[in-house]
Amino acid sequence: MTIFQIPAMSCGHCVRSITEAVLAADPAAQVKADLASHSVQIDSHVPPATLAAALTAAGYAPTPATAG
């Protein structure tokens, strides 16, 4: 599992865009976005760097986070 902080994620549209970006990189991924904490949890076999690149290409600036 990979967790990213995404400070710019602030609405449902952001969640949809982030989810679509992750699914474009890995159609089998499971994505859980939390607006309150500005974080996204991704269960995927794709390397975290690839997921981060997909999120960056979608216009977001993900930073790695650790499970709490």
TrEMBL record:
Keywords: Metal-binding. Residues 1-63 form the HMA domain. GO terms for molecular function: metal ion binding. CDD domains: HMA. InterPro entries: Heavy-metal-associated_CS, HMA_dom, HMA_dom_sf. PROSITE patterns: HMA_1, HMA_2. Pfam families: HMA. It comes from the Bacteria. This is Copper chaperone.
